[in-house]
Amino acid sequence: MATNHLLEIKQYGQSIWMDNLSRDIIQSGELKDLVENQGICGITSNPAIFEKAIAGNVIYDADIEAGVRAGLPTYKIYESLAFADIRSACDILRPVYEASNRLDGYVSIEVPPTIAHDTEATINEARRYFQEIDRENLMIKIPGTEAGLPAVEQVIAEGMNVNITLLFSVESYINTAWAYIRGLEKRVAEGKDISNIASVASFFLSRIDSNIDAKIDDKLKKGVDDIAQEAKLKAVKGKVAIANAKIAYQEYKKITQSVSEASPEGGRWQALATKGAKVQRLLWASTSTKDPNYNDVMYVDELIGPDTVNTLPPATIKACADHCDVANRVEMNVEEAYTLLENLKDPDINIDLGKVMDELLVEGIDKFVKPFQSLMNSLEEKIKVLSPV
């Protein structure tokens, strides 16, 4: 029997979650099989995933009709559909949650992307989602925006599990890690238990390479001064996202392994760990390879390592199960990673990584807002069709 490489990855301390959810895979038993037999131990969702799942799918029609009869507005009908799927997925993953001592078995749902820049609205929606969905293994997804991080700190302090999403820069990850720590510290100060809280920091990959590769291709198309410049530009293609992620992992280690009172961190994490705190794991997101010239599992193979999660769309799950080359690589070629990012400043390359990350965050929110609004429009149309005359 062929080896399922997804199961091998677990031996290196990495959990594989699936970046997909629909009622079809719940009701068909596919999700249960993925969890019980294929090594999938968590689910991430987002507005784009729900748009794909719900729009034009008759499996939701009965519940939409029930919402119409109850006089619910469109947004509440959407929530009734999404929340029901999230609860079902949480229940399927509950055995994983219990067997892993609450390390895995989580299902993520994102607060509305339209409030990504509103701290108070994000906190209020996180509270409501956590209460209404009512599952211990629920994770609330909050974008790692300037307004999002104070919300992360607060909801962690209130005892919710949080998935901080849309992280692109190493700095944004560091800020996220400290928001988690501050939230736990607040909870400790209130004399509350922190051993049952989990968090992941969703660090995006392929979108970085797509953005930078397009800039490089544009420079090459316009023409370069010499062969040396052409070589420098081509040497960067398809490599920035993984290098960036490896550096983020080094920052994760600095934060969680600092024990010196003299350091800026001052052993703050260790103080929490002694009280049972779980590390906030880095989660590799946006892991489907967009460029067909690249290895279709490169964002899996290159970032396997302890205390990490990789969330994969279905096609990448199948590809990885078939031909992932499993080894602990997250700390391989780290010096080369630092050099690669430094090389972006070379006048012959001249790509401002900070500016790229800012662009990607704006685009990332837009990529969630648009499908969310499209889904609301699709539901409006379906409600008109299903409403009694």
Summarize the entry for a quick read.
By secondary structure, the chain is an alpha/beta fold. The protein has helices spanning 5-9, 23-27, 30-37, 47-54, 61-69, 74-99, 119-133, 148-157, 170-189, 206-222, 227-236, 240-257, 268-273, 298-301, 314-323, 334-343, 353-386, and strands spanning 14-19, 40-44, 106-110, 138-143, 162-167, 199-204, 281-285, 308-312. The protein is globular and about 70 Å long.
Query: Uncertain spans, ≥5 residues at pLDDT below 50?
Result: none
> CATH homologous superfamily - what is it?
Aldolase class I
- Characterize the main sheet: 8 strands, parallel, barrel
Portion in strands: 5-15%
Instruction: State the secondary-structure class.
Output: alpha/beta
- Estimated helix fraction: 55-70%
Helix/strand order: HEHHEHHHEHEHEHEHHHHEHEHHH
Please give the radius of gyration in angstroms. 21 Å
Strand elements, count: 8
C-alpha geometry:
globular
CATH topology: TIM Barrel
**Looking across the biggest beta sheet, what order are the strands in?**
1-2-3-4-5-6-7-8
| CATH top level label | Alpha Beta
Q: Characterize the quaternary organization of these chains.
A: single chain
Give a written overview of the molecule:
The protein is of the alpha/beta class. It has one domain: TIM Barrel. The protein contains 17 helices and 8 strands. It has helices at 5-9, 23-27, 30-37, 47-54, 61-69, 74-99, 119-133, 148-157, 170-189, 206-222, 227-236, 240-257, 268-273, 298-301, 314-323, 334-343, 353-386; strands at residues 14-19, 40-44, 106-110, 138-143, 162-167, 199-204, 281-285, 308-312. It has an 8-stranded parallel beta barrel with strand order 1-2-3-4-5-6-7-8, surrounded by 9 helices. Helix 5 (61-69) crosses helix 6 (74-99) and helix 8 runs parallel beside helix 9 (170-189). The radius of gyration is 21 Å and the shape is globular. The termini are far apart. 44% of the residues are buried.
